Amino acid sequence: MIRKKMGTSCFCYVEYPTPNGNWIYLGPVHLSKNYHLFAALCGVRNGVWGVHVKPVSPPRDLPRDVTPEVAKEAEEMRGYSHSHSWLSVEELLRFDWDQEVPHKTRINVADPFVRKWFEQDDHRTAPPKGAFSVTSGNEITPQEVQWTQKLRVDVKDFLEGVLPYLKYLAFDYIVKAPNTRIVFWFKD
Q1: Are residues 88 and 162 in the same domain?
Q2: What is the predicted pLDDT for the residue at 132?
Q3: Are residues 104 and 93 in the same domain?
Q4: Which of 92, 25, 110 is nearest to 65 (CA)?
Q5: What percent of the chain has pLDDT over 70?
Q6: Residue 86 above 90 pLDDT?
Q7: pLDDT (mean) for 12-20
Q8: Rg of the Cα trace of the chain?
Q9: Looking at the whole model, is its pTM more than 0.90?
Q10: Range of the domain at 116
Q11: Which helix (DSSP H) or strand (DSSP E) does residue 15 occupy?
Q12: Domain check: are 71 and 144 in the same one?
């Protein structure tokens, strides 16, 4: 039997600090399967497809004071998960989402629209959609290309959906608590 690898997924939970130093479990938060985001959070999948991101932090393991709910989830997955970590909302807000990220891949230049992009001198945007559909055999020769673009382009869903929600929880939910955190890990 051949087992297909389905990629990497992130399991992420929000914890909120109390004034006395304890933590309250607020629940899971969905992070889309976005390797650029995973690389930015803690370096997971960094270098895949030629993308190199300076992460917020390397994996830190679970916090010492992790909530019992998150600790239980982590323990249930411990044998087949990796790169356990946590980040505060404040760290996420301070992070350089505008860093220029190098990308490298192979594209199909037989398509005239893709060829037009390929022949331009300034590769500060990704190749057009569909450019990566490289066929095998003698039909075409894939062309290796490199370009740079801001990380925020690659993680737009996180910056426009999840981060504003986390910011709300940290600054407007009950009391101002910029150390509200996400606790997360990955499974391949």
Answers
A1: yes
A2: 60
A3: no
A4: 25
A5: 86
A6: yes
A7: 93
A8: 20
A9: no
A10: 100-150
A11: strand 9-17
A12: no
